[in-house]
Amino acid sequence: MRIHYDDNWGDDPLEAGRWLARVRSQALSRRGALAFRALEAALLAQPRHRLIAGELADSRGDFCALGSLASHKGAAKVWLQGHAYQDDEEIMDWAEARLDVPKWVAWMIMEANDERASPAPEVRWDDLLHFARRWIRNPTEVYREWKAARLAP
């Protein structure tokens, strides 16, 4: 299950603002910019331009966007296979520690891959390449759009 700005926060009306501030800080940081550039490079380096959803890698050698980035950075495919997104926090922490991708940027990549992109693997690849390139070209504008989409009723 994905983490959204209103999940499990009880009665704290300020938590949504704190969450958005964390996402903004990481997405617009130098490390965030480097992560989006690395994602673009990883996608372009894939031999098959297709992305799966819901797990980092499968037995056929296909990856999700974050799995593609991990593979491109040398993460062991054996570890990647079978790691479904059962625990977003675990994957986000792993991406931050092992891939140098800010935690909330990793979440944004997973969300774009699984919830915002086309279900067709080849089209999903195109969608995520477009996603990465938009963040590279104009991160402030893309963040504003991203924020508005999350806060819309």
Structure description:
- It is a single chain.
- α2 runs antiparallel to α7 (121-137), α5 (88-99) packs across α6 (103-116) and α7 (121-137) packs across α8 (139-151).
- The two termini are 19 Å apart.
- It is globular, with a radius of gyration of 15 Å.
- The chain has helices at 15-27, 30-45, 65-72, 77-80, 88-99, 103-116, 121-137, 139-151.
- The protein is built from eight helices and no strands.
- The protein is mostly helical and 153 residues long.
Major sheet? none
Look at the structure and give the mean pLDDT.
86
Helix content percent band: 55-70%
Structural class from helices and strands?
mainly alpha
The number of helical runs is 8
The ordered H/E elements are HHHHHHHH
- CA-CA gap between termini: 19 Å
**Uncertain stretches:** none
| Rg over CA atoms | 15 Å
Strand content: under 5%
Essential attributes:
mainly alpha; 153 residues; globular; 63% helix; 8 helices; 0% strand
